[in-house]
Task: structure prediction
Amino acid sequence: MDSRNQATLRGRAAEPPRPSHSNHGVAYYTFPLEVERLSGTADVLNVVLDEALLTQCPVEVGREYELTGEVRSFNNRSGVGSRLVITFFARNLLPTEGEHMNQLELCGVLCKAPNLRRTPLGREICDLLLAVNRRYGRADYLPCIAWGGLARACAELAVGDSVHITGRLQSRKYRKVIDGAELERTAYEISVMELET
Result:
């Protein structure tokens, strides 16, 4: 099974772009995109794009955009915040209107044993970590979650299995106690809708 990492988001820019980093002489920017779910709540997703794309299509707060690209991960070695940082890397960006959209397709290899558990309300949930190859020998390590019957099916997978997932990128708030202080954090993960092996 080939590696695949394709995603489309349609949502609203929540803040103006700000400088993120530079790589090989190219400047990159980041901004949060609000993508509404059917439930009415919104996922707030971190978008990264290069300066050329931002110049071609300036981003305005409150305006809606459609983006195509891929979900990426990198290791945060600063010691502040999450160790695994998940972002949406935009390859195309266009102003748009209409229903918000959050769709992605991943093909990769399971690189950690699935963890089947129950929520406090008794729902079954399975955590997966998928490695998706990128060019130049790099890989993105993407946390995925599945619910119910799909969670039970995911729990049967083994490390090294090839997996094809369709789903959506989501954000989730949670609280963590660090040095006696309770802090609010945000987790980013792929919610699995369909799974093929």
In short: The longest helix spans residues 148-155. The chain has a mean pLDDT of 91. The chain has two domains: 4-102, 105-196. The chain is about 5% helix and 65% strand.
